[in-house]
Design goal:
single chain; 384 residues; alpha/beta; Rossmann fold; 6-stranded parallel beta sheet; two-stranded antiparallel ribbon; 16 helices; 8 strands; binds fe (ii) ion
């Protein structure tokens, strides 16, 4: 079997890395930057830190700070058009996946006519762009700083276009102020990136290596960071883990967990990381029937113990239990506890079967309505 893995954009990692932004922009020969972020990033001061670094390096900049969760296509069109009119020659996306994805998508509109909607295809199109895109994550979750994906909401659905990025600046200190629930949801999102990368049909050994290491770090440090957001060691290890999980699934893509999560997102508007981890124990339990050895890697990395005599079903059970224990240690509440309507939850199969074909076919077995029904029902009914 031939598999492919890539070397992602260079990463500058470490406490205080944000202070190097201006110098890095200068090195790239850029003179006018569009900084893209949201109100939360602004309030936490990460936007100001980026701007101070740009000022110190003598770099001119504009700010687009209207990004929202699950960013809509019109924000990309507005940001991209504003940047083009201003003669911007570099984009810096600061924040979670929404800000970073918006920065990437907006940058595409410098060399390609607006609106962005015309570039959304299934499967997504890769559009190479010359303008440097620098990404600065402020949560330890999406891994968007090392993936080509720009996920944008258009017409009520999450749609994608892919592009190339120039470099990432990962400063764990920017995550210190992330509140416990967001820390949990983003960290568990990263967990699912790694778990789905390891078990993807589109597997490669490099993604297994970094994905396994990411799961080990998340299992050890996420409960600590949720309890104590100022724990520097936990924040540092989680920033690394989220980046490695991002690198893992940038090559393999995610699969059924993210597909089901997109349906949960559409019907309940709950956080992406929550939606993903909500179904992951059951997705892994079923995937063990197809590829038990790879599900076992996920299970071992998150603390399940195996003696080597387990059947595929038992590997699935133990792995699901370990993932459930981890999410509970991070404050996870079941869909029932969240008062999600059971009937709506169980009826999401039809929607799931109409979206994200690329994700569905990346599951290691065949995905049919019965499988989605079973995963949704068990995720709702079988976990407290
Ligand atoms: Fe995700």
């Amino acid at each position: 079997m031939v598999s492919k893995y890539s070397q992602a954009a260079p990463v500058y990692f470490g406490e205080g890395a944000i202070n190097q932004l201006g110098e890095r922009v200068k090195e790239l020969g850029c003179k006018k930057v569009m900084c893209v972020y949201d109100a939360g990033v602004k309030a936490a001061g990460a936007g100001a830190k980026a701007e101070e670094s740009l000022k110190a390096a003598g770099i001119d900049y504009l700010v687009y700070d209207k990004i929202t969760g699950e960013p809509a296509d019109y924000l990309v069109n507005e940001c991209g058009t504003m940047a083009k009119e201003a003669g911007v020659d570099c984009f810096v996306g600061i924040g979670g996946g929404s800000s970073m994805d918006c920065a990437k998508a907006s940058a595409l509109l410098i060399e390609n006519p607006a609106p962005i909607e015309q570039y959304f295809t299934a499967p997504p199109t890769f559009i190479r762009t010359a303008i440097p895109i620098i990404l600065v994550p402020t949560t330890a979750g999406t891994g968007s700083e090392c993936s080509p994906m720009c996920i944008i909401t258009s017409g009520g659905e999450k749609l994608s276009v892919f592009t190339n990025t120039r470099l990432a600046i990962i400063d764990p200190e920017l995550t210190y102020t992330v509140p416990p629930s967001v820390t949990a949801n983003t960290g568990l999102d990263a967990f699912t990136h790694a778990a789905e990368a390891i078990t993807a049909r589109n597997y490669n050994p490099h993604s297994e290596l970094v994905g396994k290491a990411a799961i080990e770090k998340i299992t050890k440090y996420l409960p600590i960071a949720v309890a104590d957001g100022k724990n520097a060691e936990a924040r540092r290890e989680l920033a690394l883990a989220a980046n490695w999980a991002g690198i893992a699934f940038a090559d393999t893509d995610a699969h059924l967990g993210h597909c089901l999560a997109d349906s949960i997102s559409k019907y309940f508007h709950s956080p992406h990381g929550y939606n993903c981890i909500c179904v992951t124990p059951e997705v892994m339990r079923h995937a063990a029937n197809e590829i038990p050895e790879r599900v076992k890697i996920v299970g071992e990395a998150c603390g399940a113990e195996f003696d080597g005599t387990e059947t595929p079903a038992e590997i699935g059970e133990k792995t699901a239990a370990a993932i459930d224990a981890l999410r509970k240690a991070c404050g996870y509440k079941s869909p029932k506890e969240y008062n999600m309507d059971r009937e709506t939850f169980l009826n999401m199969t039809a929607h799931t079967m109409t979206i994200d074909l690329g994700l569905r076919i990346n599951y290691p077995g065949d995905v049919d309505e019965a499988l989605c029904d079973e995963i949704l029902q068990a995720s709702y009914d079988n976990y407290d």
